[in-house]
Fold this sequence. Notes:
Layout: E1 2-6, H1 10-13, H2 15-28, E2 33-37, H3 43-52, E3 58-64, H4 66-75, E4 82-88, H5 94-99, H6 105-114, E5 117-121, E6 124-128, E7 131-135, E8 138-142, H7 143-152, H8 155-162, H9 167-180, E9 184-190, E10 195-207, E11 229-235, H10 239-245, E12 260-265, E13 268-280, E14 283-295, E15 300-304
Parallel strand pairs: 1-2, 1-3, 3-4, 4-15
Antiparallel strand pairs: 5-15, 6-7, 6-14, 8-10, 8-13, 9-10, 9-13, 10-11, 11-12, 13-14
Helix pairs in contact: 3-4, 7-9, 8-9
Amino acid sequence: MYDFIVNPLSRSGQGHSIWKTVETELKKENITYEVHFTAHRRHATSIAEEITKDGKEHTLIVLGGDGTINEVINGIKYLDKCTLGYVPTGSSNDFSRGLGLPCDIKKAVTSVLHSGHSKLIDIGTIRYRNKKRRFAVSSGIGYDAAICHTVCISKLKVFLNKIKLGKLAYVGVSLDRLYHCRPAGMTVRLDSGQEFHYKRAYFAAAMNLPYEGGGCKFCPGAFCDDGLLDLIVIADVPKYRALAILPVVFSGGHTHMKGVHIVKCREAQIVSDNPLPIHTDGEPVFLQRKLTMALEPERLKIIIP
Length: 305
């Protein structure tokens, strides 16, 4: 039995019509399923929690974007008893890109129903002020989170999604946020005992997969099954050098550029001199100064092609 969690507003309101296409295929094949439509922010979290709270094994299929994936994994009660399938209908789709999942709707549905293959992946966590949130793709503090916060409320994103150019929203907002960005002093402490101090940090992001922000390949060496996070910090360079880094991140060719610092770790504590925006898989968190990034002890089974 499949439980489909569907964001009808994904892809700028096309999620519901996409679901109708998926449902037609399910009925053709006499697949047993239940569908749960999200109606508001964080609804997918409560849906996933309700389904999985019994401690039994469940297969959840998400139809939505990276934000819907984030909400679902934050609701799963027992990661090691759940199997997750994904039909991507978002604008960035970094989760599917990082895992090599099909973005074509029919191919994605065929994959989740018939591939017979799965992969155990790490799930990240952030902790701040006695709160905890999970992430599947990445979590960041500073400039990259400010972009996510702005894109989430951007009318431009809605318009560009309708003409299938949603990624351009990230490009426009990233330039605007860089112009207004005020780098902050930042200290990073790793579980290995290493400690790094930056006078002017633009952002720090823990990557579980290589991409975030609609295809920015921040950490080409990030693997979601190695028990490690890849932490990238952009710091201590003037804005014109930071601007030069931006176009290169799409190819992953920025890793040796001045101002780019990448390390692998199991846990990282970040302390900023100033409160900064935070995101988990693009979902905004209120301004914070301190947070800890790590991995859950359990892994999550993902259906792959």
